[in-house]
Structures are given as C-alpha cells and as structure tokens.
Amino acid sequence: MALDDYLTELDRLSAAAAEAFAAAEDVDALEAARIEYLGAKSGQLKSVQKQLGSVDRADKPAAGKRFNETKTGIETAFAEAQARVSAGASRKTARAPFDFTLPGKRPRLGHLHPLTQTIEELKEIMGRLGFTVATGPEIEDEWHNFEALNIPASHPARDPLENFYLSTAGAATGAPLLLRSQTSTVQIRVMEATKPPVRVISLGRVYRPDTADATHYPMFHQIEGLLVDRHVTMADLKSVLRLFASSFLGQDVHIRFRPSFFPFTEPSVEVDMSWHDTKQGDAIRWIEMGGAGMVDPHVLEAVGYDPEEFTGFAFGIGVERICARRHGVRDIRDFYRNDVRFLHQF
Amino acid sequence: MIVSWDWLQQYVALDMTPDELAERVMMAGLNHEETRAVGDDLAIELEVTSNRPDCLGHLGVAREISVLWDVSLRVPAAAPKESKVAVEDLATIRVDNPRECPRYTARVIRNVRIGSSPAWLVRRLATIGVASINNVVDVTNYVMLECGQPLHAFDLAHLADRQIVVRQATKGEEFLAINHKSYTLDPTVCVIADARRAVGLGGVMGGADTEVSEGTTELLIESAAFDPMSIRNTARALNLHSDSSYRFERALDPQGVDWASRRCCELILELAGGELAAGVLDTGELPDTRQPITLRFKQLKRVLGIDVPPDTARQILVALGNEPLRDSGSDAIEVLPPTWRSDLAREIDLVEEVARIHGYDKIPEDVGVPMVESHRTEADRVLAKVRSVLTAAGFDEAMTASAVEQPWSAAFSPWTDAEPLQSNIPVLRRADQLRRSLVPSLLGSRQINEAVSNPTIELFEIAHVYLPRIGELPCEELMIALASGGDYFAMKGVIEGLLAALDPGTTLEARPTGQALLDADRASELWIRGSDGKDELLGYLGEVGGKGLEQFDLRSPATVAEIRFGALAGIAVMIPQCGEIPSHPAVARDLNLVVDEAVRWADVERTVREAAGPEAESIEFQDVYRDQKRLGAGKKSLLFTLTLRRADRTLTGEEADQVRDRVVEACAKSHRAQLRA
C-alpha cells in the first residue's frame, strides 16, 4: 500500500470520527460512535492499524508516526465529546426552550406603615440635630395635660366635650384622667425629671374628639421638639426648624413664622416652610408645618426651672398631615383601615 | 371674623392693596383665610385666635392696621344727645347673679320709628354676611361688628313692670328665643328676665316676646358683661351658638360696655329718631385689674435672638395702646396695657407684641445651634430590629385605634381581668373602651381585607395596651400583635425567628392556655427564659377558634399572637459578640423514634439534649409520622437530626454512633421510645 493512500485513509478516519463524536447528543449515541471508531475489536481505527502492516517497509516509520498522531487526535475528540455529553446529560434529555422572561420567585416582603416610616425619618433627622427621643403615657392627669402647660380650668381647651376623659379613672386614683390631647405632656414629664439643658423629641398618639372624615381623625400622631438651655432664642428655633425641614424635604427650605396663640408658648407662632413645587413649574409654596414658640415662663416655673436663667423653644408637628402630603394620601382614615393594598404602596 | 374693606376705611386710611393688607395682617397675627368680592365691597376673612377678642370688631382690626402702617386711628366719639327725662323714671334693672353677670347697663330711647336701614348700613352688614332686619336691630349688630361688644335692644313696652332682672333660670323654665325655638332651662343658665319671665338668654340670644318689631316705639338697650365660662356652658348645653355668645366666651374689653351702649344709641337716634333718656342704668363699672408691666429691653434679644432698638419697641407698645408709666431710657419701659388687651399681663407678652409687629421675618434662620450628642433609645433599636424581622417574614404593619367597642374588648384580654378603662365619649363610633389587647383590632383589620378579597393578609401592630391599676396611672404596656392566615406553626416559626434575631441563645417554651378566643388545642402561652434566669411570660399564640372567627365575621382561618415588647427588649442582645467558629466538621445522625401520641416533642428534645451531652450541636426536628398499621394505634414517630461536633478534633463515625445509642436508650427509658429501623 502506498504511503499516500494510507495517509489519506488516516485523514478521512480522523475527520469522520470527529464528526461522529460531535454529532452525538447523548451518552448512547456517543457510545455507538465510540464502538464504530475506537472499538477494540472491529473499530475503524483498529482496522486502519491492521493496514499498517501492508505499507511499504521503508514508509513504515512515517506511517506509524502519523497513525499514532491520528489515534491521539481521535481519542482527544472522544474525551471532549464525552465531557460535553455527560455535563449536559440532564439538559440534553429534555431540551425544552428556556423562557428567561418568566417572573422570578419573589419572597413576600411586608411593608412598614407609612406613618411609621415618616415618624422614623423625622426621629432620625432630629437625632442628627441632637434631640433624643423621650416617651410618656397616653393616659394623663390634668396636671401634665393642662395645668403645667399653662392651660387653666377656665380655658376652652379643657371642656369635657373637647377631651376624652376616662369615666372609671376617678374611682381608681381620685383624680380625673384623660387621653392626652398633645404630646407636650411628655415635655413636662422630662423637665420635671431632669435639669436643663434638655433637648428631646416626644412623639406618639394623641386624641381629640373630632368626627372622622378625610382630614380629621379622633386619634393622630404628633412629634414635638423641646430645647431648654441658657441663651436659647427664637433664632435658634427658626434655624433648627430650617435644618429639620431641609433635611426632610431634601432641598433648601425657608421658614416663615406667623404669630399664633398656644397657652404653653409665648411668643407663639405657626410655622410655614417654603417648598419648591416641581409639579407646578417649580413655584415656591408656603406649607403649614406646625406650631411652635418659646416655652412660656409659666411652664418653666411649673417644672421648677427659673425663667430668668433658662429659655427654651418647643414645636409640634402633626405626623398624619405631613405623611399624607408626602405620599399623596387623600383620606387620612386610610391610615387606620389597614387595607394591605394601601399598605403595600409605601 | 369677616371685615369689610369699605367699613375699615371709616377708621383708618387704606393706602395699600387688599392683598398687601391681607399679607401684612396675617404676618402680624390675623391669619388670612380668604378675600371675596361682595357687591362693590370686599369681605376679608381673618382668623382671630382666642386670645385676641379685641379683633372681633372692625375697630380692633383697624387698630392693628394703624400700628402696622403707622397711620392714625379714628375712633367715633359715641356721644349721643340725651333728653331731659331721666332713665330711672322709665325702667329699672336688678342683677341677682353678679358672678355670671358682673356688669349690666341699660339705656332707654323713646319714640323711635322702626323702619328699614339705609343702604350703606345694609351693604356693610351684607359684606359680613348679616341680613338686615330693621334699623334698630341692624344698629345693634353693626355696633357689635364695630367694637366687638354684643348688644341687645328690647321692646320696652313688652317688658313687664318695665323692669330687667338678671338671674339664673328656674328649673324647667321655658324660653322662646328670637329664632322661634323653645328652650327648657335649668339653674345653670343666666337669663335676662322682666318682672314675670325670661326675656333673653344672657349674652346668647334675645327672646321672641320682647324683640323689636314694626310697632315698637320704646327701646331698652342692653350692654353688659357676662362670665365667659357661664356663656360657654349655656351655649353648649342648649347647642345655641351666636355671634354674641362667641364673643362673650372670650375676655371682652370691660371698658367697652358703656362705649358700645352710647355708640348704639347714637346710631339709633340718627337712623330711627326718638329721644334718649338721660343717664344710664348701670350696676357699676368693673374693677380695673390691670397691672403695670415692665419690659426690660434686653429681654427682646434674650428671647428673640435679634436686636430690636428700644425706640422701636417703645413706639410699637404705645401705638398698640399701652400707656407708658415709667421710661428708663434704653433699659426698660413700664406700661399699663389697654383695657381691651387682657392677654397682656407679663413681660413676655410685651416681647411677643414687639416681635409680631416688628416682624418675625427679621429673625434669622441660620444661626449656629450648638451640637450635642444624642442617642437612639434602646427601645427604638430593638423596635427597628423587630420591624425588620416581621416585614422580612411578610407581615405588613397596621395601625388601629386605641379604643374598641365592648364586644371586641371582651373577646380577648389575656393580660388583665380588670374592667377596661372607658372614655366618657366614644373615640370612634361605639368604641369607648381602651383596649387591653391589640388582637381584636387586628382581626377587625383582617375582616376589612377579607371583605375586599385581598388574598394574603398578614398584619402586625406595635402599640400600647391599657391595663388599669389601682391608685396610679394605668399600665401602658407596649405589645406586638400579629394576625395571619398561616397556621399555629407558621406563626410560631415567625416568633422563633424574631427571638433568634434578638438573642440566638433564647429558648421558647410553649405551655397550655385557656383563652376562649383561641382554638382549645392549637394555642399556647409562650414563655422565655429572661436575662435574670427566671421564666418570663412572652405572650400568647393560637389559631382563632370557630366562635372567634364568627364573632369577627371571618371566612378563612386566622392565627393570632400577642407578645410583650418588654420581654423581648429584656433579652435582646444589641451588640452581639464574636464567638469561636469550630473548624472540624460535624457528624449528623438521623433518628426516628416511635412514641405514644401523648409524648411531647419538647420533652423528647430535652432528653436527647441531656443524653447527647456537650457534643450535641443541634437537635433539629424534621417531621412527625403516623401510620396505624406500621406503628400501631396511638403511636407516632418523631424524625429528627442530631448534629454532633467537637471543637478540638473530628468526631469518628463510631463515636457518633455511640452518642446516638445513648440517646436512643435515654429516650426508651424516659419516653418508652423505640428506634424505628
């Protein structure tokens, strides 16, 4: 047999084996191809090896060398095919198209109540401004809810119909109790228990008899700040409120004071903040923020502070209103219905 | 208070635009609600705070304007011409209740001609929204809207014995008011009576019998002072609120009584003719209780944080009607406040006056407030963790009202047997009981969600419950309540996860409970080992029983839990410490023990832990299996994995088998358990 013919036969075998291995899609097909080409008894490689004997003697070294190269090549091709097939064994059996656009498997995540989110953010901002959270009871006596806050018995705010007095309380303590109508009660408790300087915020539920409608609810949340020290002025109040509002809205905000009247502060002001309304052509709008003022000297005296030595400011903000405006909630009763579709928006 | 643009100009020059006026008076304390056109006039609606009754009349608002724009204020003289007939000969007055009516004055006008009012008067009243009745009634309204002092005109001919008696009503006394409604009175009400019957509700409303009508020729003009509390109580008790009662509920100018009377008579003479009797029937002027106030000018800077020149402050105070008594230059000024400003009594009140007129816009908003440290409270840290675990577990946070109606209150009260605290008026419809548990409220929220077919309703709330205590304020304990559509074990798993997040070392123990709301079997008390080593009640957990579901109108099963935040906070490890992480591998052995149905897992687990010794890293329950044929009746098989590990070396298989054998033996002894092959 001529050398050239033998080499041609080797090349053909090499190509055919490579093609057969590549075409094999599963273990069985590959095994069949292996037997065909690499079978120990009657594989094609075996028969080509046998033909080596008929090659001219002088050409034998060259033919043998090429045979070995061909054998290695086919074995390598088989090994690769084997690796490919075994790796893809499971896939290969049911090769249905993979729809990567199907939705993912989502864990159900709960949502925090929007009021909690607002409260936590307000607390966090005030924390950065040095205010520590203080708490106090929701059921109060008249001293903390009225007297110490400079609200005398003749004041209209003390009308039994303007408050939620408790009917069983008299028997229990001998003194009338009521659901607190403002969180300023906590200021009194803090000041009674500590010496100045005081820098706290109090927050929580407060109660006033109002018929529930889109903008009123007999229970709502208030956040109140109090700072008492030497040399505290209304300029400090305005500056703290500006830092507070700017932090909350994430834009530079200005503060406006309008005179008002609260028994526990003097001077008393309504606080507005300017706000760029991006929905209305970036117009500047004044938005009511809450009430504020300098702690009334009577209040300082009631808790044993000397008004000639200390001054302080206080401010209060209704959480529902600020939260409703922020999230576009149109009916504050929704805050207390707890429809999960409502809650899941926030 | 609505003021007329046209009317104001009678007292003060208005050289500004209506918008400028509204803006400026708002920034000085009269909050601007709206301005609307009424005919050729403008109605400017201003909100007057309760401390400023002086601004419940045009003159008061005009005074503010005169101060703000530094222009003069023209106050009518109110000097009606008197006739020769003495008033004492025409009528008498007597006040039996000087506490409720500290001052009463009456003037008499005879021979008036009742008719319609002139156009200017009708127009001004129309701007304010007051309908014209006749010239006399219109004048009484006009003067009230001018100076804030309410007045009343009686038809003197209809007053029995031409007498006014101010007294408290008798029990059951009937009264027909101008509004033609009948009122049954009691002795808390101050009435104006004649010799026979009540002819007016003092300071609230006049009577129909004695009102001024077409045939009236003789008038008795009442101008009086009433106790604000008494007026408020009467108006509230009778649900009868008038422009008059609104003003008398506030502290009116005690000196305004006589001026208003004179002004009223002056205008009646002008518009309805007649002759004013000489003099006035008067129980006497009220004592002047005003005290001088000293403003130390340095207090302005101390409170406001800005320098206000003493001259500016002095000028403002005087312009507002304060009478300077002593002036020590740049140090201080002593003033006597005007009679119409009973809200000015202290130095700080004067500081506010100077501030609001000088302008709060002068106060800077960028001063450096000293920094101080602040810390998040421990409770807030724990709460944040609780909230993050519960939302990760798929629970939405709810907020519900603190008061509930009686059936809800009674449905579940595991924390106290004491009767719930009750509010005198319901917080919401029928809800007058302060809740002793959050669970009923959450079940109510579940119902709301079920009604709108929300498929998954997993709610938690963190709020106080109100537990009555004798002799002190109620205990307001913070609770975490959950309500879920999952079963007992799903909910228990959430609570276990919560505990693990706060303190991985805590173990939860379930004990039997007898809460009526919950399923008799599928419910338990939850106990933890507190930081002091004592067992502490954490809360309650259970599937809601059939009756409970019915009570709350629930269609699908619900599981609830309520746990004490205080107990959680007590065990919370907020700064966990790093421990040794063993490097040698663990060896696990699966066990399958057949026991009687009555045997509880918690007991088996304890036995396993004790028998396995210190190498037991975990005992993980896998499943419970029942099969009457293979296991026998009344038997169950508990499957669990025991994981063993040593810190110093790898455990061999033989050692693990020995531990397992020890465990099996102990369980056989303690629980008659048999290893299932």
Describe this structure in words.
The complex is a heterodimer of chains A (346) and B (677). By secondary structure, chain A is of the alpha+beta class. Chain A has 2 domains: 3-93, no CATH class; 114-343, Bira Bifunctional Protein, Domain 2 (BirA Bifunctional Protein, domain 2), CATH 3.30.930. Helices cover 42% and strands 21% of the residues of chain A. In chain A, helix 1 runs parallel beside helix 4 (60-87) and helix 2 (27-38) packs antiparallel against helix 4. With 677 residues, chain B is an alpha+beta fold. Chain B has 5 domains: 2-68, Phenylalanyl-tRNA Synthetase, Chain B, domain 1 (2-Layer Sandwich); 82-282, 3-Layer(bba) Sandwich (Phenylalanyl-tRNA Synthetase, Chain B, domain 3); 293-361, Phenylalanyl-tRNA Synthetase, Chain B, domain 1; 379-571, Bira Bifunctional Protein, Domain 2 (BirA Bifunctional Protein, domain 2, 2-Layer Sandwich); 587-675, 2-Layer Sandwich (Alpha-Beta Plaits), CATH 3.30.70. Chain B has 20 helices and 32 strands. In chain B, the strands form 8 sheets. Chain B has a 7-stranded mixed β-sheet with strand order 20-23-24-28-27-26-25. In chain B, a hairpin with a 2-residue loop joins strand 2 (31-38) and strand 3. The mean pLDDT of chain B is 95. The interface between A and B is large, with 84 and 90 residues.
The assigned structural class of chain B equals alpha+beta
CA-atom Rg of chain A in angstroms:
42 Å
First-last Cα distance of chain B: 91 Å
How many structural domains of chain A? Answer: 2
* Helix share bin of chain B: 25-40%
Residue fraction in strands of chain A:
15-25%
> How are strands sequenced across the largest beta sheet of chain B?
20-23-24-28-27-26-25
Largest sheet of chain B: 7 strands, mixed
